[in-house]
Specification:
- This protein is of the alpha+beta class.
- Helices cover about 45% and strands about 20% of the residues.
- The protein folds into 2 domains: about 90 residues; about 250 residues, Alpha-Beta Plaits (2-Layer Sandwich), CATH 3.30.70.1660.
- It contains 9 helices and 11 strands.
- The protein has an 8-stranded mixed sheet with strand order 2-3-1-5-4-9-10-11. A 3-stranded antiparallel sheet has the order 6-7-8, covered by helices on one side.
- It holds the Pfam family PCRF.
- This is Peptide chain release factor 1.
- Peptide chain release factor 1 directs the termination of translation in response to the peptide chain termination codons UAG and UAA.
Length: about 350
């Protein structure tokens, strides 16, 4: 481990020198990547120094305890602190998802359940927006299609942070949210008070930092323009401002109509398209290394039911991690951290186990 730590120390020092060079910051994309990696290594360096400091304190306490017994009282506390510091360092040394520091584009789509599903999709969006507010992140609605009774048929929201620490990245926290979210409650349209089950799908994509990061040929794009429409087909404006972009090689389709400007809708559509293409590339990499990565909690499979929200019992249950709590009301108000931390912890445990298997 000492050899790997030393190489990380060397990389940390090299990055420090690069980031001190004003020329590096002329390329914002490169500066962000270097900054994210520096923040990640900075945590490892500080954790290692903490371990070494505690080792020194413990050794000194043991030596002094031989001459003055009262110093022996400090030894158990120092041993406990050292064990915790070593565990933290070990976790930090687990190879991190390279996208953890990225911002995300989050999509929520109504599924089974008609109007109730659309209302639940709106509830999920508000939950994520409030969670983002608690984390100090910024949100931006990119596109939405409202349902007749409220809520959304589908909605796309960008979530951003100014932090360069990958451990505090938006993707590091929200990547576990992709999948089917099931709700059990009495719909507002139910006159008999019966509990219904419906679902909404969530997709999460890491956002591309710079357009050049994903190479898109204009010859690979089919771009259609049309008039925006609202609920019930009601015309929103009389110009062809809505944009639909099809990426021919992959078949990925992105449509935008929220803005009144065709140019703004096109820019938003390209932003989402790049994020989806980045996710598509990662899915191909994951498929090639499926055996190595199969244990991870993260998923882009929209068909996987990941969580149930039971309103009559005020219960939330994550079916992947086994997390269960009876505080659904506060979770829907944005208190999502404990649920997400259960996924992060399981992911870390799986990756630690995979490292142990690789070492054998």
């Amino acid at each position: 481990m000492l050899d790997s730590i030393q190489s990380l120390f060397d990389e940390h020092q090299e990055l420090q020198q690069q980031l001190a060079d004003p020329a590096v910051h002329a390329d914002q994309g490169r500066a962000r990547k270097l900054g994210r990696r520096y923040s990640e290594l900075n945590g490892i360096v500080e954790a290692y120094r903490r371990v070494e400091s505690l080792k020194g304190d413990l050794e000194a306490a043991r030596e002094m305890a031989e001459e003055e017994p009262e110093f022996a009282d400090e030894i158990p506390t120092l041993e406990e602190s050292l064990e915790e510091a070593e565990q933290r360092l070990h976790r930090l040394l687990i190879p991190r998802d390279p996208d953890d520091g990225r911002n995300v584009i989050l999509e929520v789509k109504a599924g089974e359940g008609g109007d109730e599903s659309a209302l639940f999709a709106g509830d999920l969006l508000r939950m994520y927006a409030r969670y983002a507010e608690r984390k100090g992140w910024k949100t931006e609605i990119l596109s939405s299609t409202d349902s007749d009774l409220g809520g959304y048929k589908d909605v796309q929201m960008a979530v951003k942070t100014s932090s360069t620490d990958p451990a505090e990245g938006v993707w590091a926290h929200l990547k576990y949210e992709g999948g089917v979210h099931r709700v059990q409650r009495v719909p507002v349209t139910e006159s008999q008070g019966r509990i219904h089950t419906s679902a909404a799908g969530v997709l999460v994509f890491p956002e591309v930092d710079e357009p050049e990061e994903i190479d898109i040929s204009q010859n690979d794009l089919k771009i259609d323009v049309y008039r925006s429409s609202g609920p019930g087909g009601q015309s929103v404006n009389t110009t062809d401002s809505a944009v639909r972009i099809t990426h021919l090689p992959t078949g990925i389709v992105v449509a935008m109509q929220n803005e009144k400007s065709q140019l703004q809708n096109r820019e938003a559509a390209m932003r989402v398209l790049r994020a989806r293409l980045l996710a598509h590339q990662q899915e191909q990499i994951d498929a090639e290394a499926a055996e190595h990565r199969k244990s991870q909690v993260k998923t882009m499979d929209r068909s996987e039911r990941i969580r149930t929200y039971n309103f009559p019992e005020n219960r939330i249950a994550d079916h992947r991690t086994g997390y269960k709590a009876y505080n659904l009301d506060t979770v829907m108000s944005g208190d999502l951290e404990a649920v997400i931390q259960s996924a992060i912890q399981m992911d870390e445990e799986h990756r630690l186990a995979a490292l142990g298997q690789d070492a054998e």
